[in-house]
Automatic annotation (TrEMBL):
GO cellular component terms given for this protein: cytoplasm
Domain Hflx-type G: 197-360
Family per similarity comment: Belongs to the TRAFAC class OBG-HflX-like GTPase superfamily. HflX GTPase family.
Role summary: GTPase that associates with the 50S ribosomal subunit and may have a role during protein synthesis or ribosome biogenesis.
Broad class of the protein's primary localization: cytoplasm
Name under which the protein is recorded: GTPase HflX
Cofactor: Mg(2+)
Positions that bind GTP: 203-210, 228-232, 249-252, 315-318, 338-340
Subunit field text: Monomer. Associates with the 50S ribosomal subunit.
Organism: Candidatus Cryosericum odellii
Amino acid sequence: MSGESIARTAVIVSVRRVSEDMDPDRAEETRQLAEGLGADVLQIRTFVQRTPQRYLLGKGQVEELHDLLQALRADLVIFDSELTPPQYRHMIDFLESSVMDRTRLILETFAAHAHTGEAKKRVQIAERMFELGQLRAMNAGYDQQAGFIGMRGPGETLFQKRRRAKKSEIHDLREQVREVDTRYAVKTHTRQESAIAKVAVVGYTNVGKSTLINVLAGSELLAENKLFATLDTAARPAHFGRQSAVLIDTVGFIRDLPESLMDSFRSTLAESRDADLLLHVVDAGVRDLQERIHVVDTVLARIGCADIPRVLVFNKIDTVDQARREKVLLIGTGFMISATTLEGVDRLKDHIAEVLLRHVVHGRYVIPFTEPGARAELYAGAVVVNERLTARSWIIEAAGAAPGARLPQRFLRKD
Ligand SMILES: Nc1nc2c(ncn2[C@@H]2O[C@H](COP(=O)(O)OP(=O)(O)OP(=O)(O)O)[C@@H](O)[C@H]2O)c(=O)[nH]1
Ligand SMILES: [Mg+2]
């Protein structure tokens, strides 16, 4: 896998069982992924699988696909599902063109968008793990085909050699990102101690997470109309009323996110785990909105974020008509906004301020000059809104402290 764009003419193939409906959203998403890598998609072709096929498509269907590729002069065929290693090999042999499946397409997309050293290494880990999985599956397949389970043939030795090489590559790469993973852990820990509220912006890919953070924090994170534009998490300070918070931009999710990517990006994804609040951003304009919400909820649960307070944000509301707005409201309670026209953004900000306030110990502290340690504690554990001096003390107004922060409560004046 190169990570370079695949400037080619492509046909997307969607295979469904007789009992299944065509899933146009999935095929469309595959098209977006392919186009994001520079492919020119000539056609989306659906095949119906009447009986389970060892090679996904029947003999006649593979011939039909072969002829279609020739007629269109397409040099790449993309399956919008995952192929098993034997299916993949079979398609390459029979179709005489390059073959990709959904997993490879997503891996390529990540590879193409990885700009930092860290992201590049994580993608490499995912690629090696994917290849290792393919090796294992192929080996198991050969064993079954040849019927010599347990026999030590030359093929097995080669397999073992390759497997060892992959494993050692994965080990080395993991060592290289371990330091970064530790830094994540330390950062999380420090932030918990300083008790500045943390708001993680999560959601399906391309819904406008980075754009929303830029609006809320006045930042300039990369935001573009591409799936997986963001591959590194980023933190940006923002203010909601008198509350300070850190906004966290995160890697987007997608249905069937390859396991290997899920694994190698786990620590980045888990950045959201100690958030005080999750903004789950969705694109109000997509048809499969509910399914996408479900995909995101499932991943959030898997990475340990199920119990964090959550706000649904229906973004891109500028792209939908009134009828759709009403439909969206039936899907769930949330905020309708547009991160580009800014409609609804102020209401969302007020709501975030309110939620953060619920977490906050807000008060006026009178700390004598003889207790500089208490003043330091307050600065570390809360957001200082105002400070003035009298002859003997600091009078400090503080907010923004999360529950559990160590604050010099003995100096708190309740008035
Ligand atoms: N029309 C419209 N477009 C928007 C809105 N918000 C974001 N966009 C566009 O949607 C595209 C994706 O925005 P990003 O902010 O990169 O989305 P993301 O969720 O961070 O995407 P990934 O990092 O790729 O997962 C960009 O082209 C944005 O300009 C909106 O409210 N309305
Ligand atoms: Mg982004």
